[in-house]
Design brief:
This protein is α+β, with helices and mostly antiparallel strands and about 60 residues long. About 20% of the residues lie in helices and about 25% in strands.
Length: about 60
């Protein structure tokens, strides 16, 4: 049985400057999504989340 692990990326909104985590891995797909902060479709992937960032999101109640 193969293990399926998700890669989490950091993205930011080019309009409001908000930063978010996503499992989307391409800017083309991400541009179809709206920013949770301002609602604009101006999101861009800025890099992968580190293991420490992932742990803080999922294991510290964040």
């Amino acid at each position: 049985m193969e293990s399926c692990s998700l890669t989490y990326n950091r993205c930011s909104c080019l309009k409001c400057g908000g930063h978010y985590a996503t499992v989307i891995s391409s800017d083309e797909e991400l541009q179809k999504e709206s920013c949770p902060g301002c609602g604009e479709k101006k999101l861009k992937i800025v890099g992968p989340l580190s293991q420490a960032e992932i742990n803080s999101i999922f294991y510290s109640g964040g």
